[in-house]
Automatic annotation (TrEMBL):
It comes from the Bacteria. One of its GO terms (molecular function) is ABC-type oligopeptide transporter activity. This is ABC transporter ATP-binding protein. Residues 17-206 form the ABC transmembrane type-1 domain. Its main location: membrane. The chain crosses the membrane at residues 21-41, 53-74, 134-153, 159-178. The keyword Transit peptide does not apply. GO terms for cellular component: plasma membrane. It is found in: Cell membrane. It comes from Candidatus Gemmiger avistercoris. CDD domains: ABC_6TM_Tm287_like. Gene3D superfamilies: ABC transporter type 1, transmembrane domain. PROSITE patterns: ABC_TM1F.
């Protein structure tokens, strides 16, 4: 199933690869900025050296600009890749429906096919975009931040490590509860589309 879905990326593979790379660059720049801030305070303000303040200030500005540009490019590439993925997937599904036998036509309702080509594909598009952006950004930010915390102070880092375990347990609990709700909602999409189809079909032609 995953291999079939990934095959629909096709001509957008370059965008799908560039999005995580620029996301990683954005995360790296954001993690380095606090160290530059610390250098401004320690080597510039406390030492009374304005030259260091200006030097590290320009460095911080450069890091912020690189992070901004990387974030914009990552968003652009991820949006393009996910939109192209959804377009190819809808086209492949429509072509597959055209080859249905009579038994398949009786098995799949019109409402169900509409749901597959609209709501389901949109959900896959959003999920693919989140994988390219958030699923890459969040773990990288976590790993880089924890590495920097251990580099600064090991004892204080243990507090963050314990907090991460608690947050992970809470997220897993929420995901397990919400998955059941999503299953119930998705089952009702077909009924909703069928009801709309019946109402539209029953409208008198003036």
């Amino acid at each position: 199933m995953i291999r079939t879905l990934l095959a629909q990326v096709r001509q957008y593979r370059k965008d799908a690869l560039l999005a995580p790379l620029f996301t990683a660059l954005e995360v790296l720049m954001e993690v380095l900025i606090p160290f530059v801030t610390a250098a401004i305070i320690d080597q510039g303000i406390q030492a009374g050296n304005m030259g260091q303040v200006y030097r590290y200030g320009l460095l911080m500005l450069a890091l912020a600009l690189v992070s901004l540009c990387a974030g914009v490019l990552a968003g652009r590439f991820s949006a393009r890749a996910s939109a192209g993925f959804a377009c190819n997937l809808r086209d492949a599904m429509y072509c597959n429906v055209q080859t249905f036998s009579f038994s398949n036509i009786d098995k799949f309702s019109t409402a169900g096919l509409v749901t597959r080509m609209t709501t389901d594909v949109t959900n896959l598009q959003n999920a693919f975009q989140m994988i390219l952006r958030i699923a890459v950004r969040a773990p990288l930010m976590l790993v880089c931040s924890m590495f920097m915390c251990f580099f600064i102070n090991v004892r204080l880092s243990l507090i963050f490590l314990a907090a991460i375990v608690v947050l992970a347990a809470a997220l897993i609990f929420i995901m397990l509860r919400t998955t059941r709700i999503f299953d119930q909602v998705f089952r009702k999409y077909d009924d909703l589309n069928a009801s709309v189809q019946e109402n539209v079909s029953a409208i008198r032609v003036v």
